[in-house]
Design a protein that fits this description.
single chain, 196 residues, alpha/beta, Rossmann fold, seven-stranded mixed β-sheet, 5 helices, binds guanosine-5'-diphosphate
Length: 196
């Protein structure tokens, strides 16, 4: 799929703020600072559409980006940020769950994990929760440009150690927003899910 246009559409914290034009949606989740904004920007070939920041936990809304006027990428706020209060964390949790569990036009969920480390407790919780949603899931291990070739196998074994990846609806991809490693595969997965 060729990316022809992309635009920020709306930010939402509840259902009545979600876009009204019902198009297929692909959600992206990951803990703060994992590289989610960078992945969105690299996928869309935009420098700064999704905000990249060194201040994790800033984005607290669901951000909808309309692509090719035909589908939405939905940036789910980063979780696992220690500096927000427990009450705030619970609020985020509810917002994320409301969206993921009720949005009928949600066609897939991308869970982003830092390839350099073993999945964190938050990554594992998010993944296990996602398995309950009955959605196509793509686990993306990003920042691969920071990994030596000789360590590539370790990335997969780290994932497998903590995540039960053996499900028909689950795919795994290594990725880099810097080198654009596997950008074409990411694009293909999304294209397949939105069925244009
Ligand atoms: P977010 O909080 O998940 O949206 O994370 P960001 O996209 O803002 O990225 C957090 C930091 O990681 C930034 O300093 C990015 O430049 C860096 N980063 C993100 N993706 C990559 C990548 O694929 N390779 C490298 N080397 N750095 C990355």
């Amino acid at each position: 799929m060729k990316i022809i246009s992309s635009e920020y559409s709306v930010s939402a914290v509840r259902e009545d703020q979600y876009p009204r034009d019902i198009l297929p949606e692909i959600a992206l989740a990951g803990r703060s600072n994992v590289g989610k904004s960078s992945l969105i920007n690299s996928f869309l070939n935009r420098k700064n559409l999704a905000r990249t920041s060194s201040q994790p936990g800033k984005t607290q809304t669901l951000n909808f980006y309309k692509v090719n006027n035909s589908f939405y990428l939905v940036d789910v706020p980063g979780y696992g940020y220690a500096r927000v209060s427990k009450a705030q964390r619970e609020q985020f949790g509810e917002m994320i769950q409301d969206y993921l569990e009720t949005r009928g036009n949600l066609e897939g969920l991308i869970i982003i994990i830092d390839a350099r480390h073993e999945p964190t407790v938050d990554d594992i919780a998010m993944y296990n929760y996602a398995l309950l949603l009955d959605l196509p899931i793509l686990v993306v291990a990003t920042k691969m440009d920071k990994i030596k070739k000789s360590q590539y196998n370790k990335v997969f074994s780290n994932l497998r150690k903590h995540l039960d990846l053996d499900h028909d609806n689950v795919s795994v991809l290594t990725y880099s927003s810097e080198s654009k490693l596997h950008l074409a595969e990411l694009n293909k997965w999304i294209e397949d899910k939105i069925c244009l």
